[in-house]
Amino acid sequence: MSEKQPRVMSGMRTTQSLHIGNYFGALKNWLELQKQYECFFGAMDWHAMTNAYKKPKEIDEYTKDIIADWIAWGLDPEKNVIFIQSMVPEHLELSMIFANLTPMGWLERVTTWKDAKEELQQSDAYNLGRFSYPVLQTADISIYQASLVPVGKDQVAHLEISREIVRRFNRLYKAKLPEPKPLLTETPLITGTDGRKMSKSYGNVLPLTAEPKKIEKLCKKMVTDPQRVTREDPGNPEVCPVYDFHKLYSTNEDLQWVMKGCTTAGIGCGDCKLKLAANINEKMADALAKKKDLLKDSRKLDSIIVEGSRRARTEAQKTLAYVREMMGFSDYSPWGDS
């Protein structure tokens, strides 16, 4: 582990392109964490495979798209270790070690497994990978000896099984892997374009980066205050999803313009949506341009991914050597892997 800074590990599943909920729920926090900690950020494609295993090519495409977004929005690939999970095979080896010492009962009690059982069966994702998800997640953290994992308050309980697995490993083998602690971060609830919680499964997301015309088109489709039946009806911005987005992207001056115009019927919903689209596109412009450059010059993006994954694997191999030593296993690479 680093002696200078606590080590942070976090990642995102690569099942679809990022939306603004991913930004305000995670990426925005990462941009602050990189200023204070030694950070490892992973594109978790093995985790994506648990329910998208029939479309591995899409997972690969989303993986590069997501990493391009991270960098475009300000994640520094030189300061942080940015990697792809499947490019660091030590994740799977440590996961197998942890799997053998994790009681079935621990996994059966995981609420995200129990609560989603019916949905998983219907989507043909009721599989071993999904069931053992918490074990691989623990390996993802421990392979870098990370001591901190950024989570919202509602996710703290999900980290407890990782702590239990690490404690059991340490107790069994007299080891000293760090028990991952939650690093509480702000994770606001972001509404979707239809007023429900923003979710890929609902199809109500607003992309994190997209062409201006697409953003404008999506904004025009947003639901508004149901009391504004006609242009002349006054409305209440506080119950309008469009106003929720304004709070994220618009200036105080624009917020006042919306509040006054809506409550007095001085502006129509269309005016409000166009103003929102313009503000989103303005804040998105620089990141969109940077992302386009990264995706256009595939060699540059590929080199960032390869170098980040190489740095990640270097640290992962150190951890695995320590793990094997504490277990009494010989540590050698008979095939010359290094």
Topology, element by element:
Blueprint: E1 7-13, H1 20-33, E2 38-44, H2 45-52, H3 56-72, E3 81-84, H4 90-101, H5 104-108, H6 111-114, H7 117-122, H8 128-131, H9 133-142, E4 148-151, H10 156-173, E5 181-184, H11 212-220, H12 241-249, H13 252-263, H14 269-296, H15 298-327
Parallel strand pairs: 1-2, 2-3, 4-5
Helix pairs in contact: 2-3, 3-14, 4-9, 4-15, 9-10, 11-14, 12-14
Structural write-up:
The chain has helices spanning 20-33, 45-52, 56-72, 90-101, 104-108, 111-114, 117-122, 128-131, 133-142, 156-173, 212-220, 241-249, 252-263, 269-296, 298-327, and strands spanning 7-13, 38-44, 81-84, 148-151, 181-184. With 338 residues, the chain is mainly α. The protein has 2 domains: 7-190 and 298-327, HUPs (Rossmann fold, 3-Layer(aba) Sandwich), CATH 3.40.50.620; 209-292, Orthogonal Bundle (Tyrosyl-Transfer RNA Synthetase), CATH 1.10.240.10. A 3-stranded parallel β-sheet has the order 1-2-3. The longest helix is centred in the C-terminal third of the chain and has 30 residues, at 298-327. The mean pLDDT is 93.
